Amino acid sequence: MRLNFLSVVPKKTDAPPTPEELAALEAMFKGADAYFSESGERRRFMQTANGLNDSDQHLLQAVLKGRLTHEAALAGAATAHSPLRIANALLELETKVKKSKDRILLDFIFALLQSKRVAEGLSRVWFFPWELSLVLNKQLTAEQVRFIWHSRKDHYAKELVPDSARVLARHPQCPPDVLEALLPVDDAMLRKILAMHANTSAAITRFFLNSPRKPERLNLAMSRHADSDVLLALLRDKHDEVSRAAKKNLAQRFPALQVTEAAIQAAIEQHIAKPYTKPVAPKAAFDPRAATQAGPESVLALDSAQRKRVAETSTDPELLRLLAADSSKAVRRAVAKRNSPAPDVLQALARDPDTETSNNALRAIVGSSPDATAEDLLDPEALDAAHRELARHVAQNSRQSGYEEAFSPLQKQDFARALFVAEHTRNPLIQLMLVKDLEAIPPVHTVRWDLLKALSGNRHLSEAVCRKIVVGLGFGGFDPIQRCNSAALLREWLAPGTVPAHYRSTVETRLAELEVKSLSA
Q1: Which among 64, 189, 291, 480 is least buried, having the fewest CB atoms inside 10 angstroms?
Q2: Which helix (H) or strand (E) holds 228?
Q3: 3-class secondary structure for 411-453?
């Protein structure tokens, strides 16, 4: 098949193509179909390959047709005029590269890739991983898989989900050193691939045998490549699911093996750093109330999970004061959720560096003191961070519902803090920023809608913001009116046609409250 496809295209004239020209076109496409299974691949290959000079085109054609010996193909890759363009053209043949058993073709591609300039150029040309079609070819050697890893590991490290690393680890020839290099990536699917791989090393096996995570030990127990002594070591696992899987695997793959207590114990001593020992008597249930009665010293001697349970149940203010200064965030979070701690304890927890602890305490404080303001409860740094968070969300003006699914746990806590500030700030400039550019009510349960909802519940609304919410947007129903602090604004609203008629009694009631309050002051 000639790569200069334009040579057989009929000239642009008014005369219809001759039978010979049509026959040439038909022969060209039939020949092309022998190399391409996808029309998109054929088009992309043609566009790339037609930019080559004659010598590179002949080299590429000879390699694809299998006309070169192994040595000649490698020599041609070393002397090619445009190795990057040749490699790019070949990788456009994704289906062929995935399925090819032609060792000369595969070695030719990797000979081109040996040039650092080619690998870097492909990373710029390809939007998707250029090595994917190669990695999916099961004919690669271990050395070629290792070469891809060393060429692309920096790109793999930037992926939020290690999809490329998973594909690489699935390759049957992936060498043990590459598998070990992937072990620190904390991804459940990737670790399952490593545990069940035929080339899993002793270091990886030992890591999974001593893993505190049951799924990782279970993967090893189900592996078709695990040694008999590894499976023996799992027969006394603390989880029955793991020991049952290891027992079934042993029976299927090592039916002649004599499973004795001595063999099991020897395997455990060889592989397990801290062997699990089943307790003689069941562990007594922890009673947090009994622990509270034993005194503060005994409570502080408990582990963090037990101290947390004490913090969730105790009503002793002095004990809660001690636990509010605990080193464990979980314990401080539990104390902050309670209404029992003294006000000064909750105020201290409201300034805790852990955002969730602080948010819990803030909610507890405003539950009993609804007129408290964010400026009184938060330190200047935390308040400034919340202001920046609010400004960011207003600038983005997100109108996407279900936004919380895209938030990380930390982002959810930061947004909860921002909502708290929106609902309890007395700063008129921050309040005005939250209604900035709003000409209509935002879509329900978007970021802007939730911010507007929090602001409408603010007991310290400025006159301008209250007017914007009630009259300009018509948002919040009766609540913003009941929180309006301007008697002049309320009198203005009593004029016919300013606010809906069914709000009139609410306006009159709130105006009367403010007048009584001003007289008593």
Answers
A1: 189
A2: helix 228-233
A3: HHHHHHHHHHHHHHCCCHHHHHHHCCCCCCCCCCCCHHHHHHH
CA 434 to chain centre: 29
Give per-residue pLDDT as tens, 402-422.
777 778 888 899 999 999 999
Residues 110, 147: contact at Cβ < 8 Å?
A: yes
**Do residues 435 and 478 touch, judged by C-beta distance below 8 A?**
no
- Residue 340: name the closest of 374, 369, 364 by CA: 364
Q: 3-class secondary structure for 119-184?
A: HHHHHHHCCCCCCHHHHCCCCCCHHHHHHHHHHHHHHHHCCCCCHHHHHHHHCCCCCHHHHHHHCC
Tokens read off for 325: 């200064």
d(CA 60, CA 52): 9
Note the pLDDT tens digit of each residue in 192-244: 999 999 999 999 999 999 999 999 999 999 999 999 999 999 999 989 999 99
Question: For residues 334 and 308, is the Cβ–Cβ distance under 8 A?
Answer: yes
Q: Report pTM.
A: 0.51
Q: How far apart are CA 272 and CA 478, in angstroms?
A: 66
Can you give the pLDDT at residue 34? 54
- Within a 13 Å sphere around the CA of 83, how many CA atoms are in the beta-carbon half? 22
Cα 331 to chain center, whole Å?
Answer: 27
Taking Cα atoms as reference points, which of 218, 136, 204 lies closest to residue 170? 136
Pairwise CA distance, residues 14 & 5, whole Å: 21
Report residue 313 CA to chain centroid gap: 35
Measured between alpha carbons, how far is 145 from 218 in angstroms, rounded to an integer?
27
Token pair of 158, please? 């930037």
